[in-house]
Amino acid sequence: MYRSTRILFAISVFFAYSLVTACSSEASGPIGGNAQLNDLPQSFKEVVIFSVNDVHGRIDNFGKVKHIIDEAREKYQSVYFVSAGDLFSGNPIVDFHPEKGYPLIDLLSKSGLDVNVIGNHEFDYGQQELAERIAQASFDFICSNVEPGSGLLPEVPDYTLIESGGVKVAFVGVVETGSRGGLPLTHPKKIEGLGFEDGNAAFGRFASLKETSGADLLVALTHQGEQEDRELLSQNGFIDLVIGGHTNQLYGYSLNSKFMVMSGKHLETLGKTTLKLFEDGRISYEFEVIDLMAEGPEDPEMLTLIAQYNNRPEFYETIGQSARDHDRRETACFYTDALRLVSEADFTIQNRGGVRANLDAGPITPFDIYTIDPFGNGFEAYELSVAALEDLLEQIDVSFSYSSDFTLERSGDQIELLQNGVPLSNDRLVTLALNDYLTNEFAELFGDPTLTYELTTADYLIQYLKTLNPGPINYEDCER
Hints:
The chain has helices at 62-75, 92-95, 102-111, 127-136, 199-202, 209-213, 226-235, 300-310, 328-343, 366-372, 386-395, 436-441, 457-468; strands at residues 3-7, 24-27, 44-52, 78-83, 115-117, 140-142, 146-147, 159-164, 167-175, 195-196, 217-223, 241-244, 250-255, 258-263, 269-278, 283-291, 320-322, 347-351, 362-364, 379-385, 400-404, 407-411, 414-419, 422-423, 429-435, 451-452.
């Protein structure tokens, strides 16, 4: 059976799935004050909300998810299934489907998802692709802090009202705006024309939504991370529950007599929040984590569909060998070296956040490379002086890895490039190659590229392994 962990504040219990550690919280309604378990009135409505976040294209556990959701809808009157964003980018089966992202939309629809808040990586395929996936979904997409402006994405609703078993829930969506210029963390070209505002700052406009809509609960379905969710819940007492995503965490706890949860990542776990709505306005909360990596019953039709989507043998051709398991920093060393050798540039850099998986020991396949680099970024080269390159690197305020025959030395905020221990001449011309996410994110630092390569960075990594035949990859203890 699936393993689960149940979080309660005040009591410890066992649950049918397996060993459970429990915690519960009771929140006050209009009457104020925290309720004790033995003070709670006996008449209540029970609401069960299942949640996932940061799925990033993983599909293999949907057979389990479908079984759990279907079973719950037979057992409970009011059941909801929601996603807190970042459906896409991370699985080549989904990312390189002829209709990018469609397998995940299909599986979520068949699993009974009710609503998804747009996450920053929902934009990775571009606005037109996102609009098409929204149109294909049987569930709602929401986001209260994006405006279509002159972009290609049609207007997305701020919220949705969903009724189940006589309980009406208002789900209000928020996406993070943590990138430069108050934008979501995605390729700037993919969100051209769209407008974004700080979701927390503007959330107060939903203060009367429960009253005007007749909703029993207001749930903030967010994709912005724990700290921002804490601020959101602290500033808006009318929110009953925050279901969050973006930072891949796993928690469920009480804050200011309300509750906030996040349900992990990559469809490895499924969150289950159970609320009891008492007649006097008080609410109790329980949060349970269901381990989808454990053995358990699965829906057979979903298993067949998943197998059909996974039947892409071209992704599993062996194109190289890795001598060991590499961590993320070591993987970035391989990544930047490969791009430098393919491009024959003097210097390559890669933002570390763009290296999304580790290179593990054994055969290397295109599936592995597209998982490490799922974004389809372009590749560009620039010719500039050493002085200009040092100045540029000092101004790129994200962590990056690099590859070069030169040595990069930092002293505070200053960067100096050396060769054989000797500083390079300031006016020496060198070539810099990097992905076009960085050149667009820091557009004020770059002019027109000297060269725009035809393929994506991931495709050049594959080309490197296929054509340069580097032998078993081993970057033990590398950090650049």
